[in-house]
Amino acid sequence: MDRGAKKSMIKIEKRFYISKGQELYIILASIILALLSGALMLRLMGVNPWEAYGMMLKGSLSDFYGISETLAKTIPLAMCSLAVGLAFTMVVWNIGAEGQFVMGALACTAFVRYFYTDSAIVMLASMTVTSSLAGGFWGAFAGFLKARWNVNEIITTLMMNYIAILLLQYFVYGSWRDPTSLGFPMTPVFPESARLPQFFASRVHAGLFFALIVALILWIVVRKGVWGYEIRVSGQNPRAADYAGIKSARNVILVMFLSGAIAGLAGMAEMAGLHRRLQPGFAVGYGYTAIIIAWLARLHPFTIIFVSFFFGALFVGGENLQIAMRLPLSTVQILQGLILFFLLGGEFFRSYRISLTFKKR
Amino acid sequence: MAEKVLVNMRGITKTFYDIKANDDVDFDLKAGEVHALLGENGAGKSTLMSILCGLYQPDEGTIELEGHEVVFRSPKDAIAQGIGIVHQHFMLVPSLTVWENMALGSAERDFIVKENATCARIRELSARYGLDVDPLSPVWQLSIGEQQRVAILRMLFHKAKILILDEPTSVLTPQETEKLFETVKHMKEEGFGIVFISHKLKEVFEISDRITVLRRGRVVGTLSAREVTAEKLAEMMVGSGGVGEIKVGVSRKPPGKPILIAEEIRVRNDKGLVAVDGVSLTLRENQILGIAGVSGNGQGELAEALAGMRHIERGRLYFTVEDVTSASARRMVDLGVKYIPADRKGVGLVPNMNVAENVALRKYWRPPYRRGFFIDWDEVYRDSGYLIESYDILTPGIDVAVRMLSGGNQQKLILARELSDNMKVVIAMHPTWGLDVKATAFVREKLLAAKEEGGAVLLISEDLDELLMLSDLLAVMYRGRLMGTIEAPDRSHIEKIGLMMAGIASDGQGGKKEHD
């Protein structure tokens, strides 16, 4: 009809293949765009954005203290990310790492309270087991509901986060409160035998090895093992899994159990290694940030460790921003949100490309 | 009247992922003619028609309707100009009634839906074109043939003058096909322009006035149906290489021992309804048993039950003397019962996983693939390389996701995996569906080879020619039952087969006429 109006066209086409380089390029572009729009936001808040970013970098990575703080944050982030990453491998959407993390912390605190002994080995080993079981069953329950009645795990895991957090509050405000805490909601400090060692006079603790060992085990099991192959098939194509005689329902429960157990173990490491007492503020959303990290790392266990370090730096840098520039905590959360937003936007370019053509007439 | 040109497409070019799906294609359609579009899968038929009905915009080229150039930005524009397409899958809403489906997407949209007026127009149209259908019945209750009538009626209801029929006969019984052709002839006389997409030569000859053959996105030629022979058309479709009919029955070994025996088995479908209702059959060494029937009569459920993937509620299944009624899919594979599912990408393969991972799919639990807790991927890769070579699978590499492979190569991969070792029984469901001529011939040869090697083959297909070509025995399935068996079937049995497909048993044996 109107030939003149259609000179050029923007076309969106599906891509068949994407190279590792292109993939990296998309991720970097997403992060840069996020930081740029973050800069705009900081500008609107009346802050010099480059100064703010400099402050974040300085606080998190420029000296020993900053790096050690970043590592201390990396531990729970990495373990929660490994936890959800395992579930995502089977395309089971465990959004409940936060709750499983809290249940792990609750369980080991209960153990310290009721079954205290002097032997550090016995204490730490038992706390590891109880916390893993607590987180594991918290996850497996959602897995069971999914396997048995096809209840959406996104809803159940998310809801169970609130149950876990409110349980935590029930105990710290109630019967577990330290009588000497002057009314603050927190339990008594863990005894010596229930503490994981810290290194180099910093807050980096032995939980770091937990994270590395879990990553190594997951890499072996998921990438090389028979069971890892099965859960990947079940996740990618459940009907092909039936065809291969894979028992997907059983695997859903097992995956959710192990995923929850890893998050529960993270909760134990956080208690025994860092806080050494239960208090409401210790769960600051690592379980949710983990979703972003696992996704960014394409579920690869070793990549997860590195991405967690990056997000740890973002957390610590954000704290520095709060202290030095008196910006609210929400600023950092907005920055994280922006990064996620642009990364998810970037996902589109993994499977599509846009080409601009000019019509000659 | 025959010379009025309704559609004139000139120089249409459309590129997807650097492949020219249409390359400078000219196509025109006159009022009162049936113009067939013939070509293999991937020749560009659907792309061309998707451009005509507004789904895609061409990169280059123009479309004229009755002499005026048009640009369709969406299917809506095309419908408004009187172009209607009847897809292979009819795109009807099953839970709605016939008239509600018609009212949906109607150009004259009123706030209040006019049920009576709509029904009256449907009745008028169906009487005029011989498309019997009750406007008040819900679509899910209709047979496939009836649903197709609804889809055609919907286009007439939307005042289409140009009708595109995309492989309309692939889901019909021979009798239903005949009825469809009567309707098409009637519409032709009334001045409609009809595009008939098919790859079945016989039907194309029967119904069309002109034939355009596409190959690899280009027009090979446009010919009058009266001036061309089937051989010529087949050659145009596949190129100079020739079709090469496959040799059948060169060495007919007599059928051997029974391997897989089903006795009166009953199986339910996913909705919990009885889909296979007391089927008995025996698969023997060196024999192909074919099962014909319109799809959705329980064939899929039967195949899954025999492969150990679906619960057998009543009756018995034996593998030689062993009772395998409740055996798992894995047990059946270990016994040598192999299964080629109809849905390649949905069941047979994991499209996002690579070739080696798909080769492992049905053997990974046994050595040499399995070593303790681990899979010996080196071994799987070695095997995959060997299978790629011996089955001539075209792939950029072993670690390439199988969704990148063409349909033919995906099917070859499944065949390679299922047939390459410890094969005693093969259950093949629509094994050549959607494949081009060469891949089809390859699959058929492999099935015949499997039989020659002593395999007991069950071939479930909708393609009668294929069944007649390959089967030693042919049974027809209708509403979960087998309607009798024909030995050494050939073309002379087509009438009888067609009646059985429609549920009319020609002789006393098998199936009842009345159903609940």
Set down the secondary structure blueprint.
The complex is a heterodimer of chains A (361) and B (516).
Chain A: E1 8-14, H1 20-44, H2 49-61, H3 64-89, H4 97-114, H5 120-149, H6 153-173, H7 207-224, H8 226-236, H9 238-243, H10 248-275, H11 286-296, H12 301-325, H13 329-351, E2 352-358
Antiparallel strand pairs in A: 1-2
Helix pairs in contact in A: 1-2, 1-13, 2-3, 2-12, 3-7, 3-10, 3-11, 3-12, 4-5, 4-6, 4-10, 4-11, 5-6, 5-10, 7-8, 7-10, 7-12, 11-12, 12-13
Chain B: E1 5-16, E2 19-30, E3 33-38, H1 45-52, E4 60-65, E5 68-70, H2 75-80, E6 83-86, H3 98-103, H4 115-129, H5 144-157, E7 162-166, H6 174-189, E8 193-198, H7 201-207, E9 210-215, E10 218-224, H8 230-238, E11 258-268, E12 274-284, E13 287-292, H9 299-306, E14 312-319, E15 322-323, H10 329-335, E16 337-340, H11 344-348, H12 355-359, E17 370-371, E18 374-375, H13 377-390, H14 407-419, E19 425-429, H15 437-452, E20 456-460, H16 464-470, E21 473-478, E22 481-487, H17 494-501
Parallel strand pairs in B: 3-8, 3-9, 6-7, 7-8, 13-20, 13-21, 16-19, 19-20
Antiparallel strand pairs in B: 1-2, 1-4, 4-5, 9-10, 11-12, 11-14, 14-15, 17-18, 21-22
Helix pairs in contact in B: 14-15
Membrane topology (chain A): Multi-pass membrane protein
Transmembrane segments (chain A): 24-46, 74-93, 100-116, 122-145, 157-176, 196-222, 252-272, 278-297, 304-325, 331-352
Pfam family, one (chain A): BPD_transp_2
